[in-house]
Amino acid sequence: MDIQSILLGFLMRNSMTGYDLKKAFSISFAFFSGLSYGSIYPALRKMEKNGLITKQVEIQDGAPNRKVYTITETGRTEFLNSLKSPLSPEQPKSTFLMRLFFFGHLSPQDRKSVAQKHLGAIKQMQAQLQSVQPQVAAHADRFQYLCYEFGLRSLSDLARNLSQVIDALEEEPNVQNQFEKIQT
Amino acid sequence: MDIQSILLGFLMRNSMTGYDLKKAFSISFAFFSGLSYGSIYPALRKMEKNGLITKQVEIQDGAPNRKVYTITETGRTEFLNSLKSPLSPEQPKSTFLMRLFFFGHLSPQDRKSVAQKHLGAIKQMQAQLQSVQPQVAAHADRFQYLCYEFGLRSLSDLARNLSQVIDALEEEPNVQNQFEKIQT
DNA sequence: TCGATCATGTAATTGGTTACATGATTGC
DNA sequence: GCAATCATGTAACCAATTACATGATCGA
């Protein structure tokens, strides 16, 4: 989903300034995307030029004038089409996967350490996401709450998947271990 | 993992040309990353300048001269450090998640259709990945095979997770359904 | 008085992709 | 005779980030 569709999506509900938009998805969208002013303002300008949104300027004293953007009918149609358009296939491009690929170059201890640290980080994210449950429940609509649950499940799936890798690492084809097995 | 570390990782085993490198990860790395010449050649040049690799030129007749790159001791150290460096936290930035966030703007039928099509695409990827199992088993080392299994599990986790969303969509708070429930 | 909030925007940089340019050799 | 493989590279472009620039007002 490109920046344009995301901005349109938020503007479907309310007219907003670029500043408001940034805040809006810093709150509810933070988990999957973080957009900066450097991409928002140019995008808004382009969308206005293309007739997807209109601008009303509110003159202000101290601060720069507020530019409130409102979605047009064209914009609404465009957004709804983009929502129904085929999803690009998602690649499981995990940062961990690339490391694992080269794990043969690390010592068994280093492998375990890297993997375990990563698992720790994931569990921390999980805990953090769980802790915001009340806020999400209070503000999200039904589908946004499904998003939240989907995200939580993704994280626990990832944790489980990683744990299985760690288990496999433990079963190191290790001379010492084999010896011990015979001994006991 | 940046392009530099990936290239170094492949050069750890063999000296190679840019062309070889592209082939190497078109085969084994395809699942998580696709790099183009437009990024490989400049990267190699930069790495040579930084002393991570050295170049031997093999004069050729027809084709452009082969430039075989070999990793240096500095390069090896750099690579091993990057392998042990902390992993950047991975965001579950799913293309589907962003759609779901705005599902309130679609009709129940459109929602189900979008979600189900996506599930279909994922199952297809799964089948395709399963079908290359023999080739992977033949060429991958132990850790690369763990990668493969990790990837497969990620896909089935994703499929299961999506199915749960679809189930939740079925339980549409729908007047018709409620009426039917009372009737039966 | 100091930091946060409101509010806009640009410039430099990053990290890539795609398309273009060249051209011999080998196998079908 | 035509496509694929070998082999290099550049130029244009894209989508985004980060840092910079400006400046008032309000609450602790």
From TrEMBL, chains A, B:
Residue ranges constituting the Transcription regulator PadR N-terminal domain according to the UniProt record: 7-79
Give any single GO term for biological process: regulation of DNA-templated transcription
Under InterPro entries, the record lists:
ArsR-like_HTH, Tscrpt_reg_PadR_C, Tscrpt_reg_PadR_N, WH-like_DNA-bd_sf, WH_DNA-bd_sf
Query: Pfam families recorded for this chain?
Result: PadR (PF03551), Vir_act_alpha_C (PF10400)
Domain Transcription regulator PadR C-terminal per the UniProt entry, residue ranges: 93-170
Q: Which Gene3D superfamilies match?
A: 6.10.140.1570, Winged helix-like DNA-binding domain superfamily/Winged helix DNA-binding domain
Give the protein name, as stated in the record: Putative transcriptional regulator
